[in-house]
Amino acid sequence: MFATFEAVVTDIRLESRVSGRARWQIALDRTLFSAAAQTGVLEAVAPSGARLEVPVLGVVEEDGVIWHVADKPLTEGTAIAGRLGA
Question: Which helix (H) or strand (E) is 22 found in, with range?
Fold first, then answer.
């Protein structure tokens, strides 16, 4: 069984861009991710109704904020369902 939670995107920033591929860091208002639980999925529903699944590739902690590293961006204010693990 996977640990799940609901949250809202509070901030997003570009981590890197190499050969046209971007990696993003996404902050949430709450999370179950930590240094011990670094991978999982953030799921959101686009305004069109399409479901978007964003794999979390790792986490970075900075000044008490957990940043979720992903290769897809999510807009600030987006409600997500998070799931730890593969």
Answer: strand 21-28
Q: Any idea what DSSP says for residue 48?
A: T
- d(CA 64, CA 2) in angstroms, rounded, equals 25
Cβ atoms of 79 and 44 within 8 Å: the answer is yes
pLDDT tens for residues 15-74?
999 998 999 999 999 999 987 778 899 999 888 888 999 999 999 999 999 999 999 999
The tokens for 29 are: 């208002």
**pTM, 2 dp:** 0.90
Give Cα 73 distance to the centre of its chain.
8
CB atoms within 10 A of CB 12: 18
Strand partners, 7: 80
| Cα–Cα distance measured from residue 64 to residue 44, given in angstroms and rounded to the nearest whole number | 24
